[in-house]
Design goal:
alpha/beta; nine-stranded mixed β-sheet; 22% strand; peptidoglycan synthesis; cytoplasm
Length: 478
């Protein structure tokens, strides 16, 4: 498949081509580059121009650069521009303009990536869908996602995030969505915003880029819902609210977690519907309402959409569950792991604690008489001056009543550790490696274990340590 020719890319960016080429993809990382990709030499932690020679040696079709890098021949296949990031944005803008795809943009303090993946599953059941394979939701991730969009795309899902004020609106205008979704607004990035109302105004900027006649789908259960509604109305959008309160157009009337799925009843379009997702969590069921609303706004077959929604499962680090067998002979000797270590803020940690609280440990199979619900929690970052208080407040979350033990990682999580009742207080460590070293002693067969924290805390080390308990059993058998 040809995604870009050198002529098309030159017209889109105003750049100069040193030799003709055709590209089947777009890459910003030589580690994941596929032969035939256009390599984009972005300047981030390191200057991408340092890797152009390596990219070409690995089979890149060409490189997008602002100068000919040292060690690269002048007749090498290059697209030379004044500004690489600006050129990537131009490619994204051109890719968006040449497709007839209906575009959905998603943002929110929590759950935007899982909602994007639900949409990929649902829309993909009714047409050719394009969405980023990862959380490419920032100033380079959105244009990269758009630049990778094939002409034949019928549905595109664009995730849009932010760290500071003023970031979402230009990305939304670049994506030009037909549907804009705000899943939730919660305390996150408070270091850059005065309050949650400021976060809401920034999230609501996703509606600024809506195409004429577009649809705004927003959470109707929030204190800041009026801010979202006002922004949608200013944009001239049709507004659909979702949630659990009676005022919501798409309303979950009953949500039940059962086994490995969440089943819910809802009311929408003056009718009752039943739907499920193949994951545990009230928050998944609520965000699924936004997906169903989006399917309706796009005129899709709702029965097919609800059936496809039931096939969606969360990805690694986002609430994915797995069973860790501790004994190669006795299948009862096992731990259930909930890997939610990708990111964290107060709302998402609360949602994960609810999932853990609803889980069913197994009694009578380990050293300890009863199975336990155990949480490993790492610092929630970017909460500003309220950070310590927001961490301590987790001790009062209703789900904590059902949780047996909480291990805390990081200086901010010390506030939670000190606020917990002594019987629920596990270990506190400064960092993840120190906690990971303890898991073999601290866990037992029958336990259900949640791992949750901001990505920079590296709680993936704890997840890996828990998984290696399985490897230890295999080694013992050998």
């Amino acid at each position: 498949m040809t995604l870009w020719t050198s002529d098309e890319a030159a017209r889109a960016t105003g750049g100069r081509v040193s030799a003709p080429w055709t590209a089947g993809g777009v890459s910003i990382d030589t580690r994941s580059l596929a032969p035939g990709d256009l390599f984009v030499a972005l300047k981030a932690a390191r200057d991408g121009h340092e890797f152009v020679a390596d990219a070409l040696a690995k089979g890149a079709a060409a490189a997008l650069v602002d100068h000919i890098p040292e060690g690269v021949a002048e007749d090498a296949p290059l697209l030379i521009v004044d500004d690489v990031l600006g050129a990537l944005e131009a490619l994204g803008r051109a890719a968006r303009a040449r497709t007839a795809a209906r575009v959905v943009a998603v943002t929110g303090s929590v759950g935007k990536t899982s909602t994007k993946e639900m949409l990929r599953t649902v829309l993909g059941g009714q047409g050719r869908v394009h969405a980023a394979e990862a959380s490419y939701n920032n100033h380079w991730g959105v244009p990269l996602t758009l630049a990778r969009m094939p002409r034949e795309t019928e549905f595109a899902v664009i995730e849009i995030g932010m760290n500071h004020p003023g970031e979402i609106a230009p990305l939304s205008r670049l994506a030009r969505p037909h549907v804009g979704i705000v899943v939730i607004v919660a305390p996150a990035h408070l270091a850059a915003f005065e309050n949650v109302e400021g976060i809401a105004r920034e999230k609501a900027a996703i509606f600024d880029g809506l195409e004429p006649g577009g649809t705004a789908i927003l959470n109707g259960d929030l204190a800041v819902t009026p801010i979202l509604e006002a922004a949608a109305e200013r944009a001239g959008a049709s507004v659909i609210s979702f949630g659990e309160s009676a005022a919501c157009h798409h309303r979950a009337t009953d949500i039940r977690i059962s086994g490995t799925v969440t089943v819910a009843q809802m009311r929408a379009w003056r009718q009752k519907l039943l739907y499920k997702v193949a994951a545990q969590g009230r928050h998944f069921a609520v965000n699924a309402l936004a997906v169903i609303a989006c399917a309706g706004a796009l005129g899709l077959d709702l029965a097919t959409a609800i059936a496809d929604l039931a096939r969606w499962r969360p990805g690694a680090g986002r609430g994915q569950r797995e069973v860790i067998a501790l004994d190669a002979v006795d299948p009862q000797m096992r731990i259930e792991l909930i890997d939610d270590a990708y990111n964290a803020n107060p709302a998402s940690v609360g949602a994960s604690l609810e999932v853990l609280a609803a889980s069913m440990p197994e009694d009578g199979i380990g050293r300890i008489a009863h199975g336990r619900r155990i949480a490993y929690l790492g610092d929630m970052k970017e909460l500003g001056d309220t950070g310590a208080a927001l961490h301590a407040a987790l001790a009062d979350h209703p789900a904590m009543r059902e949780i047996d033990l909480v291990h805390c990682v990081g200086p901010l999580m010390r506030s939670l550790w000190e606020a917990l009742p002594r019987e629920k207080r596990g270990h506190w460590t400064e960092d993840a490696p120190a906690m990971a070293a303890r898991v073999a002693r601290d866990l037992d067969a029958g336990d259900v274990v949640l791992v949750k924290g901001s990505l920079s805390m590296g709680l993936g080390r704890i997840v890996d340590a828990i998984r290696k308990l399985r490897q230890g059993a295999a080694t013992a058998e050998a």
